[in-house]
Amino acid sequence: MKERRVYVAVHGGAGYHGVLSEQSVKSALKRACARALRGAPLDDSSALSVVERAIAVLEDDEHLNAGYGSNLTIDGTVECDAAVMDGLSGDFGSVGAVPGLKNPIKLASTLLRHSREPDPLGRIRPMTLVASGACSFASSQGIQTVASNEMISPRATQEWQKWKSRLDHPVDGDPGNLPQDAMQDTVGAVAWDNEGNLAAGVSSGGLLLKYSGRIGEAATFGAGCWAQQSRSERSGMACSISGAGEHIMRGGLARVLGEALQSQQSDDSELDTHHILLRILNQQFTEPMRQRGEQMPNAGILLLTKEQGEDDEAVRKLWCAFTTESMAVAYASTTIPSPKASILRRPVSTGSAVDADKSSVFITALPIHR
Fold first, then answer.
1. Cα 314 to the chain's mean position, in Å?
2. DSSP conformation class of 269
3. Is 186 a residue of the active site?
């Protein structure tokens, strides 16, 4: 009997990861990988379900900006975004600005599956629900809701109090800028199941002191996550995006990456994933944002690709690319179930002219292929 194989990779956001929080973040990522694989292969080990289980663990951890522990809005509340996408069907489900929901990713996944069912009146079923409508749908589907204040962590409260006070009572008219670690954004996951299918997901509490009702890349089609497969199912990709949502949405970053990879794979040329990531993040993300006056546009990508190997066997490869100081990732599989977690960091610049000419993008491949 052929050995069953399921692969999962998760991220805890692209941004800034201080030494004090490093172990807590890595522990959360490892737990997410382990829990995601616990259902495989005996229970539901579809790529979509693996992604949902992984992200739900990250949403429950107070050290990450998703679910419990989310950054607070300007009004001191938690409003979450989340999305999932199935590479086999192209189905997508997302929710935005949702309060009082323990695991927004479960609602996004339920909405995706709901969209596959026939409607009694022939209506087109939604891909995205927001705010009170999303909450009503959650209740109708038996998804756990909680009192809004139960989603607020002590850490998030402290950060909100500090920066809301500075905003309301600036010193000499200058409230200062939010620190890098207060802007860390978004968690996510990608997965490959035993049938070779791919899926991706993302979840976020958004930026600290965001406007109430703001929706970021984690709820936007083509921005926060993307998954696709060729008709032959011999090639494909799944990615989860992190960073400044408004910047990512402007470029439709996740979909643009998927289209670039698909275009090269359809040309029957050897896939140069490193080059594609570099081009997308430099030419189609960083440069347009700099032209708009954003000197340090933030984005991070966790990417799982399906490529053609020897003897027509599909080969999986995992990549991470980011423009920020660091990005937290972890990965595991049913063949190597002990998760590996890392805080990937950009090499320290020497401040030389040579460094100034280097790309702002850090890219690395991760050994998930075994």
1. 24
2. S
3. yes
Question: 186, 224, 222, 253: which is closest to 90 by C-alpha?
Answer: 222
The whole-model pTM stands at 0.92
Q: Tens place of pLDDT for every residue, the chain, 370 residues? A: 456 789 999 999 998 887 778 899 999 999 999 999 987 655 678 999 999 999 999 999 999 999 999 999 999 999 999 999 999 999 999 999 999 999 999 999 999 999 999 999 999 999 999 999 999 999 999 998 999 999 999 999 999 999 899 888 887 666 666 665 555 668 999 999 988 899 999 999 999 999 999 999 999 999 999 999 987 777 899 999 999 899 999 999 999 999 999 887 766 667 799 999 999 999 989 888 888 888 778 999 999 999 876 666 778 899 999 999 999 999 999 988 899 999 999 886 645 444 433 458 999 999 886 5
Question: Can you tell me the distance from the alpha carbon of 341 to that of 25, in angstroms, rounded to the nearest whole number?
Answer: 9
- Out of 73, 128, 186, 220, the active site residue is 186
Letter for the amino acid at 213?
G
Name which of 109, 98, 118 is nearest 141 in CA terms: 109
Q: With contact defined as beta carbons under 8 Å apart, do 351 and 301 qualify?
A: no
Residues 248 and 218: their CA atoms lie apart, in Å, by 10
Whether 186 contacts 328, CB under 8 Å: no
Could you tell me which of 73, 27, 29, 320 has the C-alpha nearest to residue 187? 29
Nearest-angstrom CA–CA distance, 343 and 334: 23
Phi, psi (degrees; rounded to nearest 5) at 232: -80, -10
> CB–CB of 244/299 below 8 Å?
yes
What is the distance of C-alpha 135 from the center of its chain? Answer: 22
